[in-house]
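Weekly puzzle thread! Below is a chain. First person to post its structure in token form gets bragging rights.
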Amino acid sequence: MKYSTKTIIALAAFVIVMIAAGIIYNNLSERYEVKNPLNTPVQEAPRKVDQEDGSNTGPDSAPSEEPKLEAPDFTALDGDGNEVNLHDYKGTPVVLNFWASWCGQCQSEIPIFDKVSQEYSEDELVFLMVNLVDGFRETMEKGKKYVEEKGFTFKVLYDTKQEAAYSYGVRYIPSTLFIDKDGYVVAGFEGPMGEEVLRLGIDLIVESE
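Winning reply:
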């Protein structure tokens, strides 16, 4: 599948907007206590459709001349309630996905993420599936129950303080970012992804032998 310059530029803009939101959040949080940052509820992403073949468009990867954008760090909880930082995984490429159990489009792509994640060791590639906990539509209990019932094996983090979502300016889910081993955002995608597009994003951050 060919990806047009328009798609690449759109992806670059998507990444820049998300990271810019993170920079603003980090700067503000140094001066003020941020409470309940997501005043606007996260919504399901509108489906992106390629006009030529009807499939979802590919990950928007930033043009090579663009300055590198470092992925903002955040703290979330693992299933046992332990704090985990994104920067704990620096040195390994990361697929960072934002989702919720009530999100239909998330439900359609999550099995694909689980399938592909099993092809890599944690030394090669880490899948961080960040569950957006708002305390109403989504709770940590609901997220954990969904993962357990489906038997998913990827690593799940619970964004109970909405720090991760706010750091990345997440407005719609699912949203996915591809982060290289040095901690820089290489590509991003807003909306549900098929397996081909997911693998394309992974190819951008995993070094071939």
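Puzzle host: Confirmed. Bonus trivia for everyone else. The chain has one domain: 5-205.
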